[in-house]
Amino acid sequence: MTTSPLLDATGVVKTYGAVVALRNASLSVLPGEVHALMGANGAGKSTLVKILTGAIRADAGHILIRGEARDVRSPADARRAGLLPVYQEPSLIPDLDVASNLRLTDTPVEPFRAWVRELGIPDLDIRDTARDIPLAVLRVLDLARALAVEPDVLLLDEMTAALPANLAEKVLEVIRRQGDSGRSVIFISHRFVEISALCDRATVLRDGETVGVVDIEPGVEERIVEMMLGAKVEKTRVAACQASQAASPGDSRPRLGVANLRVGSKLNDVSFDLVNGEVAGVIALEGQGQDELFAALAGSIRPSGGTIEVDGKPVKFAHPADAIRAGIAYVPGDRTEALTMQRSVRENIALPFSAALRNWGPINMAQERSTVVSAIERLQIDTRAQREVQRLSGGNQQKVTIARWIAAEAQTILCFDPTRGIDVGTKQEIYKLLRELADQGKSVLFYTSELEEVQRVCDRVIVIFGGRVVDVFPVELADEPALMRAAYGLPRGAKADVGILADIHSSPVAKP
Ligand SMILES: Nc1ncnc2c1ncn2[C@@H]1O[C@H](COP(=O)(O)OP(=O)(O)OP(=O)(O)O)[C@@H](O)[C@H]1O
């Protein structure tokens, strides 16, 4: 007997003026299935999720839920039909505390609390204002809020993208259990390791159209990448770049010297050097002080102790502009922090040029334009909706934050999870680009929540735990199980039960 789909969408179309977000999308999900929705940045995944959950209306298409035609007109309609989303950006209202946010969405508090604990956050105070809660935790709260109403179909749009390993691991366990208990999950992710470990099937979108549905089985990644990227595949599937060994032997002075750096109770005594010509990775579980480290180096918070030196001279940054003047650029993990959403792609990329203008005088528009255009091409930014950055897909917004600092030619780039939400083809471009920057003699500090990225880009990796540097690995020794153990504060060689992600990280998976 064949099982009939719980959700069946066909012929879905959505346009925004001249931009065709979806031209012919379909998606069919069985009960108890964890179904991946895949596609390059801008393929239309988020648009489809928003249509299925009543946040926007489709121009055309049919949606069947449990075999019955449904016109999902609003989020409330979708919820009544058993469909609950977790969108790509946090949805709690920043100025309200968590409890008020729960009241607004009619979410039962006790089940919410139970899920929050289950998802690895034991000490949440629901009187905390959403604005003061870190991005990764906000994502987990969004998930707990959805789980608390026991949806039949949970739609997760890049749920794990901002999560460090420990929280991602809990989320994956919960998703797996949802499937086991007969509920369905639609799972959007650019991380193949998660798709292989979790999903039963995948629907692939390209340019707004469903181009295939595949069973997840060993070796299917290659096929998915080809379907996702279509004709672009040859151009974008560059070989993973080899991390060259730390360069610039002639210049022994570190570009950035950090000694005994402290920030309140979060960062205790962190010391390391970053030299020109290297990409140094930073790995840490959620809340180990990495946010504070990057914020202090970028001049957005003041350290409570220790020193920062740039090219051998002590510096004190009172403001991010001081760090920028010292040639330090910061690509934050939260793109909404970096971008002026109502402004165009060009203005956002050109921001450091305009900000750097000391005197009144003509801006060299031709030069600005050519630098911006080359950064857009380099990162393959989808500019169909370029007049306002807020209209770009999430991945394309992320690319704009990176393009800005490429165009500005900063000497040191602090990247905080820069490939969050970036598709597999463009990720390769970004890895290549970071290596090229290092080869040109620049220095890059690169925090990543995706352990496999370390091998692809870094010369060495600094592991932070409890606000301290607990280990520094040369890239040859930085395999994923070793990094996981160090991130948990365990000594090298120790065995640890670190759950589903450890299984994933130690199992051989084809890496696109
Ligand atoms: N409000 C809007 N106005 C104009 N264009 C839009 C709007 N919302 C989305 N788009 C466009 O629709 C296309 C699909 O975007 P969507 O966010 O669905 O992509 P996605 O597959 O989720 O990408 P990503 O992986 O980057 O999140 C993009 O070209 C985007 O710029």
Mean pLDDT: 86
Q: And the CATH topology of the largest domain?
A: Rossmann fold
Alpha-carbon Rg, integer: 23 Å
Work out the strand percent: 15-25%
Task: Give the overall shape.
Answer: globular
N-to-C terminal Cα separation, in Å?
Answer: 36 Å
Q: Structural class of the secondary elements?
A: alpha/beta
With helices defined by DSSP (H or I, 4 residues minimum), what is the helix count? 19
Strand order of the largest sheet: 6-7-8-3-9-10
Pfam family, one: ABC_tran
Protein name: ABC transporter related protein
Organism: Mesorhizobium prunaredense
Domain ABC transporter: 7-232, 251-491
How would you summarize what this structure contains?
The chain is α/β, with parallel strands linked by helices and 512 residues long.
